[in-house]
Design a protein that fits this description.
The complex is a heterodimer of chains A (about 130) and B (about 260).
Chain A (H helix, E strand, L loop, with lengths): L3 H15 L1 H9 L21 H22 L3 E3 L5 E3 L2 H8 L3 H12 L5 H4 L3 H8 L1
Antiparallel strand pairs in A: 1-2
Chain B lengths: L4 H35 L6 E5 L1 H4 L7 H10 L14 E5 H4 L9 H4 L3 E5 L7 H5 L5 E3 L5 E3 L9 H5 L6 E2 L23 E2 L5 H4 L6 H5 L5 E5 L6 H8 L2 E2 L11 E4 L1
Parallel strand pairs in B: 1-10
Antiparallel strand pairs in B: 1-8, 2-3, 4-5, 6-7, 9-10
The chains are: A mainly alpha (about 130), B alpha+beta (about 260).
Chain lengths: ~130, ~260
C-alpha cells in the first residue's frame, strides 16, 4: 500500500476535474439565474397577460401573422378591451424596443433561434446603419 | 279497422313521397340562400391605368421605382439573372410582343414601358403554387405569403409577364436603405409587387402612384363607376399586356 498517497491524490484530482463545471457555476453564481429580459419602463400592460405571453407569445405572433396576411385584419382587441394595431416591429417593438435586451435574452437562454428576424427588421439595426 | 294490402301499400307510398318532398324542398331553399350569399359582389377591384405618353416625358425618371424600392426594401443585384423586380422598365417590343408591325414599332422601338405585376383576374401563378403561398384576394390583389413560400419557382415559370423574382442570395446587404416598417425577404423566397397592400389597408394609394410627378399612373376601384380608372377606361382606348393568354391582366395602358 505504498501507492496510497498517489491513488487518493489522483482520485481527488479526478473528482475535482469532472465536477469543475459545477464549481465554476456555483462560484460565478449563475446556477440559479434565469434569463433576465429587460421589461419596458413606460408601459405596464401587454396585449395579453404576462403568464400567457411568457409561454405562448409565439402562438399569438403566428395568429397575428395569419390575421394580417391571410385575413387582411390589422386590428387586435386585447383581453382588457384595449385595441392594438397588429405588427411585430410596429407594435411589439414600440415597448420592447431592444431585440438584444428582450427577445434574445430568453431565446439564447432556451437555446432557440426563431426565424422572425431573417425578414422582419430590428429597428435598432436601422438606427445603427443610418446614424 | 282492417286494412288490405293494396291500401297499406298506397298509404306507405304516399307517406314516403311526402317525406322526400319535404326534405328536397328544404334542400332547395338552403341552396338558394347559399347561392345568394356567394353572389354578393365584392365592393372593390383594384386596377391601374398607365399612360406611357406621360411616363415617357422624362425617360430617365425613376421616381416610382425608387419609391417602391424604399417602401418595400427591394434589393438590387448587379447581375440580371439575379435581379429582383417589382416595378421596372421593359422595352416596348418585350412588353407588347404582339403589338405593332415592322413599321409601327419604329415609333416605340427601344422605348421603355413601365411594367409591374398585372394582378390578373385569372392568375396562373396562383394555380401552380403548391403551398398556397400566393392567392388572389377579393379586392383583386394577388398576394404573397412569404412565410409560406418554399421557393419552388413554379410561379416564376407560369407568369407570362416575368413579374416574379427569386432571391438567389441574401437580399439584406443589397438593400440601399432599410425601412423598418416593411420586412425584407430572405434567401430562397419568391417576391413581387403586392400593389402596396400595406398602404391600401391604411387608405393610401400605392407608393409608385404617389411618387409620379407626371400623374402617369392612375390607381382606383374598377367596381366604382365614378372612379378615375373607370372614367379613363370609358373615354380612352387602352391595351393590356398579352390579353390573348386569358390571364385577364388588370394593368391598362392608354394608347
Amino acid at each position: 500500500m505504498r501507492d496510497r498517497g498517489i491513488i487518493v491524490g489522483g482520485l481527488i484530482l479526478f473528482l475535482g476535474l469532472i465536477t469543475f463545471p459545477v464549481w465554476y457555476n456555483v462560484t460565478a453564481g449563475s446556477t440559479a439565474k434565469g434569463p433576465e429580459p429587460k421589461r419596458p419602463e413606460q408601459e405596464k400592460t401587454c396585449v395579453a397577460p404576462v403568464g400567457y405571453m411568457r409561454t405562448s407569445h409565439m402562438d399569438l405572433l403566428m395568429d397575428w401573422r395569419d390575421e394580417v396576411v391571410r385575413r387582411h385584419n390589422r386590428k387586435f382587441t386585447a383581453y382588457d378591451g384595449k385595441s392594438y394595431t397588429i405588427g411585430l416591429t410596429q407594435t411589439c417593438m414600440k415597448c420592447h424596443t431592444s431585440k438584444a435586451d428582450f427577445c434574445d435574452r430568453c431565446h439564447n437562454y432556451a437555446g432557440v433561434a426563431p426565424t422572425c428576424w431573417d425578414c422582419h427588421i430590428d429597428p435598432k439595426l436601422v438606427q445603427r446603419s443610418t446614424g | 279497422m282492417s286494412m288490405d294490402r293494396r291500401r297499406f301499400l298506397g298509404v306507405a307510398g304516399l307517406s314516403a313521397l311526402a317525406i322526400a318532398a319535404q326534405s328536397s324542398l328544404a334542400a332547395l331553399a338552403r341552396g338558394r340562400q347559399g347561392a345568394g350569399a356567394a353572389e354578393a359582389p365584392a365592393a372593390t377591384r383594384w386596377a391601374m391605368v398607365i399612360d406611357p405618353k406621360q411616363c415617357l416625358k422624362d425617360e430617365g425618371c425613376t421616381d416610382c421605382m425608387a419609391a417602391c424600392d424604399k417602401a418595400h426594401n427591394v434589393p438590387h443585384f448587379p447581375e440580371s439573372a439575379h435581379e429582383v423586380k417589382w416595378i421596372w422598365k421593359e422595352h416596348f417590343d418585350k412588353a407588347f410582343p404582339e403589338q405593332g408591325s415592322l413599321y409601327t414599332a419604329e415609333a416605340f422601338r427601344d422605348r421603355p414601358i413601365l411594367v409591374l405585376c398585372n394582378h390578373c383576374d385569372n392568375p396562373p401563378c396562383v394555380r401552380v403554387c403548391p403551398t398556397k403561398a400566393t392567392w388572389k384576394r377579393e379586392d383583386g390583389v394577388v398576394m404573397m405569403d412569404w412565410h409560406r413560400c418554399i421557393g419552388c419557382k413554379y410561379c416564376i415559370v407560369s407568369c407570362p409577364y416575368g413579374s416574379r423574382s427569386f432571391n438567389f442570395f441574401d437580399p439584406r446587404p443589397r438593400i440601399k436603405e432599410l425601412s423598418p416598417d416593411f420586412p425584407t425577404r430572405t434567401i430562397g423566397v419568391v417576391e413581387k409587387c403586392n400593389f402596396c397592400e400595406e398602404r391600401l389597408a391604411k387608405g393610401q394609394r400605392p407608393a409608385c402612384v404617389e411618387a409620379c410627378r407626371e400623374k402617369a399612373l392612375v390607381f382606383g376601384n374598377l367596381y366604382d363607376p365614378a372612379s378615375e380608372v373607370r372614367e379613363l377606361l370609358r373615354t380612352r382606348y387602352t391595351i393590356r399586356r398579352k390579353p390573348e393568354l386569358g390571364t385577364n391582366p388588370e394593368i391598362y395602358y392608354l394608347v
